[in-house]
User: What shape does this take?
Amino acid sequence: MTELEKKRSAAPVPSEWTYAPAPEARDIVSLEERYGLFVGGEFVEPRSGEYFPTIDPSNEEPLAEVAQAGPEDVSAAVASAREAFENGWSGLAPAERAKYLFRIARILQERSREFAVLESLNGGKPIRESRDVDLPLAAAHFFYYAGWADKLEYAFPNRRPRPLGVAGQIIPWNFPLLMLAWKIAPALAAGNTVVLKPAETTPLSALLFCDVLRQAELPHGVVNLVTGDGRTGAELVKHEGVDKIAFTGSTEVGKAIQRELAGTGRRLTLELGGKAANIVFDDAPLDQAIEGIVNGIYFNQGHVCCAGSRLFVQESIYEPVVSKLKRRLQTLRVGDPLDKNTDVGAINSKQQLTKIEELVAAGEAEGAEIYQPPCRLPERGYWFAPTVFTNVAQSYRIAQEEIFGPVLSVLTFRTPDEAVEKANNTPYGLSAGVWTDKGSRILAMASRLRAGVIWANTFNRFDPSSPFGGYKESGFGREGGLHGLEPYLDFDGKADSFGG
Amino acid sequence: MAKAPALPVGFELPLEPRIPRIGSVDQVGLEERSATLAKRSIKREAKVWALDLAVRMMDLTTLEGSDTPGKVAALASKGIRPDPADASVPSVAAICVYPNLVATAAERVRGTSVKVASVATAFPSGQTPLALKVAEVHEAIELGADEIDMVIDRGAFLAGRYAKVYDEVVRVKEACGDVHLKVILETGELGTYDNVRRASLLAMAAGADFIKTSTGKLPSAATLPVTLVMLEAIRDVYEETGRMVGMKPAGGIRTAKQAVQYLVQLHETLGPEWLTPDLYRLGASSLLNDVLMQLRKEKTGRYQSPDYFTVD
Assistant: This one.
């Protein structure tokens, strides 16, 4: 025994348990040096002749060059979509359309690791999230709408649903592939063709998706892809060959689009910003509420339009909630997006980082108390530590404006009425959360909160069968569920209920 | 027989906000959290560190009607030096046996760091009079037990007679004196996570040094979510009182991978202060050899045949 004990003391056990790096292999993804536009089933050089680099935001390394589509390129894409719509796709038997969607869903599942790695590379989100959330949900969306494709007559009985034509779709950078799925799946299921513009900073998963379309042998021109910055989006919005615009992004741009389309008869759905209230009552399951708060605001670095960025805590449990929250923040692992143990990844772009920094500085200047856990941020790339503001007043900018970053504002309330009043006191109305052990209170709160999605004792959970969309300046129209088909259909020649 | 004390006149609600109000547990959120933690990828030196710790935290257990002095002596020897081929593998924390075999185990581990834990209080059911339970504890300690693993009276708990459960733990703790007391909740019989949380707080309030999930005698023993509820209760007690209570998941932990998942959950819930055999134990009968096999694999780069590891 003495011999054994000596050996033990000779090799002292380290007191700290540091997890070894566990990076997901990135060589599963092979990137081209340069990508054209996907028009009529093949990649073409942009007529604009312009390209711009797209980078990995976690280290600012360039990944590839992508095309900047100009007006002529957008026109070519729209013409290709029109051609595909008129000559084939809209006349195809609905069950055949479903087959293509099922194929796409299965291929996405098969190639999910590849897509997950690419999504993290180009967007900065942790691989744990792209692997466990983005990819399964994207595939699920295609599966779900594939099922509806040949059942539209049953989904909308006696309303004679018909496709609209060419849908122009503009998606954001926070969930590049998932937002693509939210847009493309219902459009194709309803019999439309598509011109899609991925976000300027995150075009790569959409470009890789074109390879999935080729694999699925989707007829040429049914889905076209134009990359570029806001100018490309503006071209698409004002193009007269487009029958419907679906936009997900900022409220500011959404308003501009609505102005542009007013009076044109072209359809519009908007899914815009949010400043969700996450309301914690004093009878809530506290430890799970803390997880929900963390998941509500630090999921995807807070780059989530429905993020629970305003935390309303009943005053009687304010102290334990804040102390538990701070403690939990210390265990968040911030770093390499490709590391399987990373909880919080990189900020998507320099521009977004600047905006977050500006608003956080405003919060400090206004008198809110800032807390950030000790964590070492990488030197290169765009990073922001998870942040909690306490002592926040309803009138502060950080309680009013969408920050779209890992920044939480904590406010208090005394009664359910006050919680409702404060939660609804915002121009937005996308989502809200209620935490209580009391079922009746959940129902009462849900009916009074002006938000399109309300989570009870959870946050940021999504399902293709559940409609998602906003009230007020968070937009109109719904994505997901049966509701998500309506904006892509014409009924008895009349406009549907949203944004006609 | 103990009765729940009537509320005295002038009974005061706590004037300060108190964290270990009983509170509630949301099953869906809890299970999501523990599933997320179970996905941590622990590799190379971090894995070796965890496996080494898992051995040091292990309560190597045999609790069978067929236990004999020979079997227990063999197990104790294995616990002292788990891998005869590798002296760098540490001893386990304790050998856990029935009272009748305490003397044999104590004899074998004398002079080493390995402790002897004895189950007591009419293990596994706990359905005998309190006097007998106390007597059993006294005898186990006299026979040489360093630690006592008691069971709570689940019948009383489920009937809502919390005071009876509480009083029994208090009496057993008195009988233990300085001997470490682990209180087994037998979570598989409690039915809900809310009950697990209640029972955890009750056991800690009554003086438990450790709280423990299971007897190992039920098909549903330790799980990650149930352990997480108990860790969170321990954390609440610590936050309010500063008292550090230990945790012991037991039963159903058979693989090194599971052991690492339990340690990750501990590390990220209670923090590095709890990463010690003084505050965390893994109750297991068949886990050790899988851990040894993984340790050898990490050191040599190769998996060895089970024939190279002693059965006990």
